[in-house]
């Protein structure tokens, strides 16, 4: 027995050594198992997008269980209002166009038929690093007759890439670069990280002279940018990107410097001037013009974003309101006209000269894949479900969805309120923070502010922006008048109301819902808590080139049947105006 | 349903724990070295390799900018003092070569020298303490080796933006079948053939490294097979370039000569050799031969119209002016060795001035 022991030990050692030499193989197998699991999880959310007549298509990815799918503008736009979506389960679903982002090359569509569509897990694409594994899924060359997505695997080749507009519109900012093969038909499809989480939307490649197939250089729109735009896309709009109203250029010392600035821009009113150095924007340090453009490109028009700049060694931190790149009509024209670039076939291999003043060859958007065999061409009838969920309106991709969102926000705010009960004269009274007391009286013709020392009376004339009382507030009385008007008249009675989408709000984490009301020559923006439905703030704009009167509501409490704010803070421009403690909130019929 | 699945997962996890405990015990008994390999997942290693290599990669800007001729390429630092290895191309054919480091620092670079036979060049910037590849630590790779390619393909990166990184495998090591009608290149040596599209516009001069970051090769210029319209993705092993790099660093294959060198009283000139160059109309007109006088030393040596003169002796001549300047250092009685490019081929010709009498033989 004892003699056996050394032999056993020897065998044991041998086995152990064999096990050891097999260790890398085990790691490889584990990596493979993990990769297969990630791809298996990811594939269920991948969509093959087809034009209803089978003339072409691309890819997409599901981002909500009720069937919202993110894809490329250059995939969805040629489809018109209806498209067909195939999923990995082999089913084909009808889908309708929801929103278009022609500059960012993003579109939102919605599938019908289920409330439990498998969705992709959205990652934080700012955490992605060069060298990370990544895989693309989609329908390159429209190969998948059974709708199972094709997967191509690679690594992240670059992050925060800036790609010049390919035509006049499509600009890829802050995008991810991958060597995973991105081919025609992959457009709009997802780029996943090694764990199968969604990090980007594939849409573009550098092709140049080798024909329109992958040369190992594909670009994906970062999912963080898409997250910013989801709200404005769900609003059924043709959305615009943002401009600061200032030109920023890199200088030799690695600084980003303001070269030119519009005096009508919000940035100018916040104090930004020529030759100021941009230090950070949107919370990200800025050292070059590309870095600045990267940040600018990830925000929709109308958002307020933190900006830090430096002049003579002194640092200034401001919140700047971003304007749209295009005029409203200009964007509609560009988005509704022919695509900026013709839709080429994969077999074409055109060569294109460099753009003037630019060193890199122009990367192009991916063309749609070839039509799949067996599908007939010609116009397909628009399905009934799409007809029911589509409404045309100028400036909108699909106004139906704007109405849905308006109603959602309204119902959360005033849906259970008896409007008849609050339609009388509103009296708001209490102490001013600091000293003194106040009393507002607002009805459907006027708004009055009584202070111990004076009284401001504002009458609702034909132009609401002609008088901005009280002085220095930017128009607090017309703002309160418009608050009451929306609350009492509702969406239909107010004038013109539309859902803007979501935007950040000072003092509030996350994004909030925004309604925009237009009435008698002025605009008013209403910011709502997306969970509780409460009105958090409103901004009264008497024209496009001036600061609004900002009114922030907080300390909500129940009064009778509804919730009323206990505190109202008013700001105008760079200065606070006053804080009103709303101890009394009375409605008189 | 959920509960059942949760149960299974739990059971599986417990099983895995038992197995890993057993495994750990084995490893501890016999050796501890195996744990490191198992503990660092492949993706972490790649990210770390990328971060370590990026500071050694540079963006190079020079001549070009015309249709199909990008004015940029890639390069890598090969000394902390600012020696840069890159591909010898038209991009370097200018007085103003700009090098941008990975951190955005920008330098004017000098072309130290080049070897057109290998299409390799060394640049120099005035800097110190840079991250650089150590050419003494170069690895030789085999087919099947996993690699990363670093380059500024398509000029995607600018300023302090990092170069692009691609991942692939060496498919085969083979001699480049370089001939007209197939791959138009003067280089005939072995190359690492890659399975990933690395050799894009602007990628030439980029670095091919192992997955651990060891330098293996330099990405070559774009090469298209004219017969079947396929493109070759390849890198030249550093070992093949080492000799030329050493020569250039030692002052040979250089475009600049020692200005202190003494000029002969009566130097050689083109008329004596029987060479007429193309009209010198550009700042840097390439020294192409326009015509060769009958019976001249040039004709006897075999020089022909349309030949491009690349070297005069050991000195790189990139323009008509540079060739004329170089001749000023050669005595009118001495013979001169010209390296010329004819089509794809490089040839060395010995031109012996007539007044020294008939050639021997």
Q: What is the topological layout?
A:
The complex is a heterodimer of chains A (about 600) and B (about 350).
Chain A: H1 4-21, H2 23-43, E1 46-50, E2 57-62, E3 68-71, H3 73-76, E4 82-87, E5 92-101, E6 106-111, E7 133-138, E8 150-163, E9 172-178, E10 190-193, E11 198-205, E12 218-222, H4 223-234, E13 242-243, E14 246-250, E15 256-261, H5 266-269, E16 277-281, E17 284-285, H6 289-297, E18 304-311, E19 314-321, E20 323-324, H7 328-336, E21 364-365, H8 384-388, H9 399-414, E22 425-431, E23 437-442, E24 446-450, E25 455-459, H10 476-494, E26 496-505, E27 508-519, E28 522-528, E29 535-541, E30 549-554, E31 557-559, E32 562-564, E33 567-572, E34 575-581, E35 584-588
Antiparallel strand pairs in A: 1-2, 1-4, 2-3, 3-6, 4-5, 5-6, 7-8, 7-10, 8-9, 9-12, 10-11, 11-12, 11-21, 13-20, 14-15, 15-16, 16-17, 16-18, 18-19, 22-23, 22-35, 23-24, 24-25, 26-27, 27-28, 28-29, 29-30, 30-33, 31-32, 33-34
Chain B: H1 2-30, H2 34-39, H3 42-53, E1 57-61, E2 72-77, E3 83-87, E4 97-100, E5 106-115, E6 120-124, E7 146-151, E8 164-175, E9 190-194, E10 207-210, E11 215-219, E12 223-225, E13 230-232, E14 234-237, H4 238-249, H5 270-273, E15 275-277, E16 289-292, H6 297-301, E17 308-312, E18 315-316, H7 320-327, E19 336-342, E20 345-351
Antiparallel strand pairs in B: 1-2, 1-4, 2-3, 3-6, 4-5, 5-6, 7-8, 7-10, 8-9, 9-14, 10-11, 11-14, 12-13, 15-16, 17-18, 17-19, 19-20
Describe the structure.
- The complex is a heterodimer of chains A (589) and B (361).
- By secondary structure, chain A is α+β, with helices and mostly antiparallel strands.
- In chain A, strand 4 and strand 5 form a beta hairpin.
- The longest helix of chain A is centred in the first third of the chain and has 21 residues, at 23-43.
- Chain A is globular and about 85 Å long.
- The model of chain B is unreliable at 1-40 and 357-361 (pLDDT under 50).
- Chain B is an alpha+beta fold and 361 residues long.
- In chain B, a hairpin with a 2-residue loop joins strand 19 and strand 20 (345-351).
- At the A-B interface, helix 1, helix 2 and strand 8 of A face helix 1, helix 2, helix 3 and strand 8 of B.
């Amino acid at each position: 027995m004892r003699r056996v022991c050394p032999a056993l030990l020897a065998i044991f050692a041998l086995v152990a050594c064999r096990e050891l030499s097999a260790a890398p193989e085990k790691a490889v197998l584990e990596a493979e198992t993990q990769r297969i699991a990630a791809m298996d999880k990811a594939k269920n959310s991948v969509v093959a997008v087809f034009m209803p007549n089978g003339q072409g298509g691309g890819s997409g990815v599901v981002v909500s269980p009720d069937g919202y799918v993110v894809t490329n503008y250059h995939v969805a736009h040629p489809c018109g209002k209806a498209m067909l979506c195939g999923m990995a389960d082999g089913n084909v679903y009808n889908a309708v166009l929801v929103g278009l982002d022609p500059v960012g090359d993003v579109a939102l569509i919605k599938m019908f038929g289920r409330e439990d569509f498998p969705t992709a897990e959205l990652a934080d694409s700012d955490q992605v690093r060069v060298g990370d594994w990544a895989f693309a899924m989609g329908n390159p060359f429209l190969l998948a007759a059974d709708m199972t997505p094709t997967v191509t695997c690679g690594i992240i080749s670059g992050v925060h890439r800036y790609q010049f507009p390919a035509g006049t519109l499509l600009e890829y900012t802050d995008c991810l670069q991958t060597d995973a093969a991105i081919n025609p038909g992959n457009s709009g499809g997802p780029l996943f990280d090694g764990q199968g989480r969604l990090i980007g939307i594939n849409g573009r490649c550098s092709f140049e002279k080798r024909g329109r197939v992958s040369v190992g250089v594909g670009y994906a729109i970062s999912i963080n940018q898409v997250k910013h735009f989801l709200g404005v896309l769900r609003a059924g709009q043709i959305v615009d990107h943002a401009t600061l109203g200032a030109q920023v250029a890199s200088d030799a010392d690695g600084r980003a410097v303001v070269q030119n600035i519009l005096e009508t821009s919000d940035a100018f009113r916040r104090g930004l001037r020529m030759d100021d150095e941009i230090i950070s924007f949107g919370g990200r340090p800025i050292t070059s013009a590309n870095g600045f453009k990267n940040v600018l490109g990830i925000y929709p028009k109308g958002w307020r974003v933190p900006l830090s700049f430096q002049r003579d060694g002194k640092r200034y931190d401001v919140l700047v309101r971003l304007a749209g790149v295009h005029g409203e009509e200009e964007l509609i024209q560009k988005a509704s006209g022919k695509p900026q670039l013709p839709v080429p076939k994969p077999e074409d291999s055109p060569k294109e000269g460099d753009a003037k003043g630019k060193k890199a060859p122009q990367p192009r958007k991916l063309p749609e894949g070839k039509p799949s065999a067996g599908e007939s061409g010609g116009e397909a009838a628009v399905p009934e479900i799409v007809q029911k969920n589509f409404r045309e309106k100028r400036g909108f991709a699909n106004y139906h969805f704007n109405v849905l969102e308006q109603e959602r926000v309204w119902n959360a705010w005033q849906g259970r309120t008896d409007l008849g009960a609050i339609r009388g004269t509103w009296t708001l009274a209490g102490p001013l923070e600091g000293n003194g007391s106040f009393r507002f009286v607002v009805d459907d013709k006027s708004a009055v502010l009584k202070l111990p020392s004076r009284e401001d009376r504002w009458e609702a004339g034909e132009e609401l922006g002609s008088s901005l009382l009280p002085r220095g507030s930017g128009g607090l009385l017309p703002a309160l008048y418009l608050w009451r008007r929306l609350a009492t008249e509702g969406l239909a009675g107010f004038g013109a109301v539309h859902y803007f989408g979501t935007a950040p709000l000072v003092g509030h984490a996350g994004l909030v819902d925004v309604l925009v009301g237009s009435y008698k020559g002025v605009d008013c923006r209403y910011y709502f808590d997306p969970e509780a439905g409460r009105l958090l703030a409103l901004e009264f704009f008497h024209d496009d080139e001036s600061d609004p009167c900002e009114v922030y509501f907080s300390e909500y409490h129940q009064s009778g049947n509804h919730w009323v704010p206990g505190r109202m803070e008013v700001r105008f421009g760079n200065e606070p105006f006053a804080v009103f403690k709303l101890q009394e909130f009375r409605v008189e019929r | 349903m959920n509960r059942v699945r949760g149960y299974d997962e739990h059971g599986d996890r417990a099983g895995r724990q038992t197995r890993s405990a057993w495994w750990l015990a084995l490893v501890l008994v016999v050796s501890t070295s195996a744990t490191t390999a198992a503990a660092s997942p492949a993706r972490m290693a790649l990210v770390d390799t990328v971060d370590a290599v990026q500071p050694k990669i540079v963006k190079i800007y020079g001549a070009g900018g015309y249709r199909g001729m990008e004015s940029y390429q890639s390069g890598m630092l090969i000394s902390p003092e600012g020696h840069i290895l890159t591909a010898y191309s038209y991009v370097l054919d200018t007085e103003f070569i700009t090098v941008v480091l990975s951190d955005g620092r920008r330098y004017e670079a000098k072309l130290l020298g080049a070897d057109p036979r290998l299409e390799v060049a060394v640049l120099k910037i005035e800097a110190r303490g840079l991250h650089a590849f150590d050419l003494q630590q170069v690895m030789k790779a085999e087919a099947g080796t996993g690699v990363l390619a670093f380059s500024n393909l398509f000029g995607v990166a600018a300023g302090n933006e990092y170069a692009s990184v691609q991942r692939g495998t060496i498919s085969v090591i083979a001699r480049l079948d370089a001939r007209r009608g197939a791959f138009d290149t003067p280089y005939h040596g072995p190359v690492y053939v890659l399975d990933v599209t690395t050799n894009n516009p602007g990628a030439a001069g980029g670095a091919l490294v192992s997955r651990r970051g060891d330098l293996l090769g330099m990405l070559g210029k774009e090469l298209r097979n004219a017969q079947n319209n396929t493109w070759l993705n390849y890198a030249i092993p550093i070992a093949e370039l080492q000799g030329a790099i050493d020569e250039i660093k030692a002052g040979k294959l250089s475009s600049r000569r020692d200005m202190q060198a003494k000029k002969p009283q009566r130097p050689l000139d083109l008329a004596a050799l029987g060479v007429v160059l193309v009209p010198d109309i550009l700042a840097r007109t390439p020294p192409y031969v326009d015509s060769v006088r009958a019976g001249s030393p040039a004709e006897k040596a075999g020089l022909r119209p349309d030949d491009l003169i690349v070297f005069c002796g050991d000195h790189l001549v990139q323009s008509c002016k540079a060739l004329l300047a170089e001749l000023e250092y050669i005595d009118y009685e001495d013979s001169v060795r010209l390296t010329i490019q004819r089509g794809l081929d490089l040839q060395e010709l010995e031109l012996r001035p007539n007044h020294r009498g008939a050639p021997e033989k």
